[in-house]
Amino acid sequence: MRAVLVLYFKYFLKWDDDLATSIYHTFVALCYLTPILGAIVADSWLGKFKTIIYLSIVYAVGQVAMAVSAIHDITDTNRDGTPDNMTFHVVLSMVGLFLIALGTGGIKPCVAAFGGDQFGDHQEKQRRTFFSVFYLCINGGSLLSTIITPILRAQDCGIYSQQKCYSLAFGVPAALMVVALIVFIVGSGMYYKAKPEGNIMLDVCKCIGFAIKNRYRHRSSKYPKREHWMDWAEEKYGKLLIAQIKMVLKVLFLYIPLPMFWTLFDQKGSRWTLQATTMDGNFGSIVIQPDQMQTVNPIFILTLVPIMDSVIYPLIKKCGLNFTPLKRMTVGMFLAAVAFVCAGVVQLQIDKTLPIFPSTSQSQLKLLNMGNNSITVQLTGNKTVNLHPHWASDDYFTFEEEQIDVTVGSPSFTKRIVLTKNERQTLLFPSSISDEWQLMEDLTSKPQEGNNAIRFVNGMSRAVNVSVAGASFGQIQPLYFSNYSQIKNGRKAFTLQSGSQSCEFSREFGFGSSYTFLIPSTMTFGTNCQESISEVEDIKPNSVHMALQVPQYFFITAGEVMFSVTGLEFSYSQAPSNMKAVLQAGWLLTVAIGNFIVLIVAELAKIPKKWAEYILFASLLVAVCIIFSIMAYFYTYIDPAEIEAQFKRKEGDNDDDEDTKAKLRKVEAEMARRGSVSSDDEDQRSKQTSF
Ligand SMILES: C[C@H](N)C(=O)N1CCC[C@H]1C(=O)O
Questions:
Q1: Membrane-crossing residues (predicted)?
Q2: Residue 492: which residues within 8 A CB-CB, separation 6 or more?
Q3: Fewest beta carbons within 10 Å, which of 270, 382, 465, 662?
Q4: How far apart are the first and last CA of the chain?
Q5: Residues 6 or more apart from 325 whose CB is under 8 A from it?
Q6: What residues flank ligand 1, with Cβ below 6 Å?
């Protein structure tokens, strides 16, 4: 659904680019923020199973709201194909997105933790495989949707008038969500469903609050120190709850540097896609659009997850290396930094091929002879240029002056031309040099999104209408020019029309070029005017191939697999039984914070050299990676189930209360059912292991 969301904002709701991207990023960040709510509901009140079901319904309703909001016919009272009450569509789609974000919050942390719950402590290897498969599924879904939803959107649909079918692009995921929910409910009898233990988050907050207050009350040196500040809650709260809170706080503390990874990771959707717009996406039989390069990430995940799990990790283990989860995450961060170094190197290659645009103290001028005779042009600074008929100077001349004198032909004719700083312009010489000279404003940056910027100059003495599929240059007056139109890559056929006469010419376009086509006065209309049209290349097409981005995608994805899949499993294995979903949400919170940092960084980091920006980000991540590895070195792995069992046994021994003993018997029966009593730990994780 995300694949078409920005397009829906732009083309259906008619929002500008800035509003569309801001709402898009806010929605994505919200999707990683709401898990904290879903997790609290699951761990304290409903349990994971019911939370997944209820919030999946919320999600599906949100998706249906999106599908309905995209039916233009609902408010199209005059049946002209555009909605007449846009407020209705905006409000409904915002409600839909909010429900989807809320539903995501219920599903994302609970599905991961609920999946983890299905394995006993002796099934650590299988549980790790589950988290890998879970990650594969997320990304398999993402890959399929990026392929399928744009196809659905491209269909025409409607009752009164046919429009692009966003309602189908949103409706099909809604239907699939309902199917998924039914499948999940049908399997109900097969799942292990851990019971929620009351309002655990409220207890946690109260316990932490009490520990802080109590510590403050006993701040004088006459009171003996306690091992941990949470131990100051012992007067009022049970040892088990305090131990569980310590486990969670230890992990959350370790998470502090992690948003930096996601800050880099999420820039592949923005900075890397922008980089791709300055590259050549022609892969022979297929042409890749800049934003399609992002699909390389899920493709690599689908291949790298099984390779890591079945080849790389076992190989490292065979070499006798203890590749603990925190070591994997550190290596993952380092690989992401390597990916940004690769992006920097690619940027250096791109920069070599980019035109040199005028600085703020400079202006640039190109000369174009519309006439049928050669002319000699003299510019300030003794620059002399010979221009053949229908010909332009090879490149732009750069000037520091604010105005220059231009002298043409003999007997000579001189005009003073006022230049604009920081701008590129083209000066048009008419056939009769004493006629008016036109000055066109040219582009001072590459066209956006890898498009090509095209314009026409009409050297004829009659108006000409120029059109091409998907763009129109309109009626161009004699000896005048059109505005730029953006066209995609590929072969384009242009139709030139004047009165009842017309002719065609076609040309192949790459990515990111800019051309001025001159319709000479000598041109005759017929079926083909290919030979007559003169072309002037203002900006060269992109020449650095998009394939050069593959290494950076490889490293960021390898880093993601090591960092993110391991992080999911680590968050589960180190969480106390009653806060498994909460720690999953804590993990997803690092993604949300990373997304917010991207929004801030995008505003602040205005380094003129893009390659330097990539290297700066890589260096920052390496620094964070070093801090994380030091924190990880001091982290001691725990087995929460074992610790909880010990506390429960102790509580049982000290307490003759039948109710407590009954509770303990229940816990032990449950643990035995899940196999946590006999732990045949087959790999590196011992009960208490360091980094
Ligand atoms: C899209 C990523 N490849 C991905 O799967 N994720 C990024 C953030 C965490 C994870 C997800 O759960 O969406």
A1: 20-40, 52-74, 86-107, 128-148, 168-192, 247-265, 299-316, 328-350, 581-602, 614-635
A2: 468, 469, 506, 507, 509
A3: 382
A4: 39
A5: 566, 567, 569, 570, 573
A6: 138-139, 142, 297, 301, 560, 564, 591
Give the pLDDT of residue 507.
Answer: 92
Q: For residue 564, is it within any domain?
A: yes
176 and 224 inside one domain: no
**pLDDT for residue 603:** 64
Q: Do 331 and 290 fall into the same domain?
A: yes
Whole-number pLDDT of residue 675: 47
Residue 151 and residue 25 share a domain: yes
Q: Which of 597, 615, 635 is the last residue of a domain?
A: 635
Q: What is the ipTM of this complex?
A: 0.94
560 CA closest ligand 1 atom index: 3
279 lies in some domain = yes
- Nearest residue CA, atom 8 of ligand 1? 591
Q: Look at the chain and report how many structural domains it folds into.
A: 5
pLDDT reported for residue 197:
75
Residue 680, pLDDT score: 36
Residue-wise pLDDT for 345-383, tens only, equals 999 999 999 899 999 999 999 999 999 989 999 888 778
Residue numbers of the domain that contains 42: 1-196
pLDDT, position 347: 95
Q: Do 213 and 96 fall into the same domain?
A: no
Burial of 264 (0-12, 13-18, 19+ CB in 10 A): buried
Q: Which atom of ligand 1 is nearest to the CA of 297?
A: 3
Establish if 591 belongs to a structural domain: no
Atom of ligand 1 nearest to the CA of 265: 7
Peptide bond into 411 cis (omega under 30): yes
Q: Output the CA angle 255-260-266, nearest 5 degrees.
A: 120
For 654, other C-beta atoms within 10 Å of its C-beta total 9
Model pLDDT for residues 454-497, shown as the tens digit of each residue: 999 999 989 999 999 877 899 999 999 999 999 988 999 999 99
In a domain, 63, yes or no: yes
Separation of 604 CA from ligand 1 center, angstroms?
25
CA of 135, closest atom in ligand 1? 5
Q: Are residues 455 and 373 in the same domain?
A: yes
Protein residue with least CA distance to atom 4, ligand 1: 139
Q: How far is the CA of 584 from the centre of ligand 1 (A)?
A: 13
- 549 and 620 both lie in a single domain: yes
- The parts of the chain modelled with pLDDT lower than 70 are 527, 602-606, 651-691
Q: What is the Å distance from ligand 1's center to 265 Cα?
A: 10
CA 84 vs. chain centroid, Å, equals 32
Alpha carbon nearest to ligand 1 atom 11, residue: 138
Atom of ligand 1 nearest to the CA of 139: 5
Check residue 669 and give its pLDDT: 56
d(C-alpha 407, C-alpha 377), whole Å:
6
Distance 269 CA to ligand 1 centre (A): 12
| Whether 534 and 560 share a structural domain | no
Instruction: For residues 187 and 205, state if they share a domain.
Output: no
Residue 182 sits in a domain of what CATH number?
Answer: 1.20.1250.20
Which residue among 142, 264, 299, 560 is best mutated to probe the pocket of ligand 1, counting the most ligand atoms within 8 A of its Cβ? 560
Q: What is the pLDDT of residue 658?
A: 53
Rounded to the nearest whole angstrom, what is the distance from the C-alpha of residue 591 to the centroid of ligand 1? 8
DSSP states along 509-553: E-SS-EEEEEE-TT---SSB-TTT-EEEEEEPPP-SBGGGGHHHH
Report the pLDDT value the prediction gives residue 342, as an integer from 0 to 100: 97
